[in-house]
Amino acid sequence: MGPVHLSDSRGAVVRRLVAMLREAKSRGAEMVVFPELALTTFFPRYWMEEAEAQARFFEAQMPNTDVQPLFDAARELGVGFYLGYAELAEDGRPYNTAVLVNRKGEISGKYRKIHLPGHMEHKPEAPFQHLEKKYFDVGNLGFRVFESEAVKYGMCLCNDRRWPETYRVMALQSAEVVMLGYNTPSLNIHWNEPVHLRTTTHLVSLQANAYQNGIWVAAAAKCGSEDGHHMIGSSVIVAPTGEIVARTLTQEDEVICVSADLSLGEHFRQHVFNFAKHRRPEHYRLIVDRVGAGDPLP
Ligand code: CDV
């Protein structure tokens, strides 16, 4: 998905999403993955009060009047979708959220982002902010797997894709496809990271984790330059072999499509990554007992 600028209305964004859903349908798609925070610009780059952010960029209901046309199109076309958005929950808590919508246009799964990157404090010296830790609470729904229309879907969001724990927890629930949306700025505000590494580390995370868990991974970026802030593209679909089987070419709205053989992952899950046969959890205790390297054991 190309950029969404501050001046773009939700209605205009949803029209773009519906157009992509229709194109995907015309190419045989049954499930479509849209990006993280797809309805708005990537607002955590801007410093503001939480109340202002919530009033401008969060959804208190899903679907709501602005987004309803996307749900209607899903039902009309018989195509499901994954959509990332900023959620203001019923209890008033803010989350970076993704929903799974089935081919009848019904919400059949929800994920709230767990690995929130960035910082809480204002960094006036930085070229832009990354305030996910200020605007969002840590997700409270875990990494669940949802069976929808005979496919087992896992969901995560952006920075989650860099953590092997994300995929393994879902693979242990027999996920077949992990869907994720992301917004990755081309510049790293924390260190002088070469720009090409932003794409390299994105791809290596997806490819390694697809292979090591025998799963398909479908990753959709919001990309291009949002009001002068450039984000990497490279939305991809990765097979359980670890191979990239489709990749975007542009930094605009663009649909990539794959006919995914879900049984492909079985070869890996029955042999090299037969978890029941080969995993040794008694030697993995530190993964849950210790948070940071060198921390005291609890
Ligand atoms: N939106 C994100 O979670 N972005 C993170 C980084 C760049 C802060 C990412 O892992 O892409």
Automatic annotation (TrEMBL):
One matching Pfam family: CN_hydrolase
Keyword Glycoprotein among record annotations: no
Ranges where the CN hydrolase domain occurs: 1-264
Entry annotated with the keyword Hydrolase: yes
Any one GO MF annotation of this record: hydrolase activity, acting on carbon-nitrogen (but not peptide) bonds, in linear amides
InterPro entries xref list: Aliph_Amidase/BUP, C-N_Hydrolase, C-N_Hydrolase_sf
Keyword annotations: Hydrolase
Top-level taxon: Bacteria
PANTHER family tied to this protein: NITRILASE C965.09-RELATED (PTHR43674)
Protein name: N-carbamoyl-D-amino-acid hydrolase
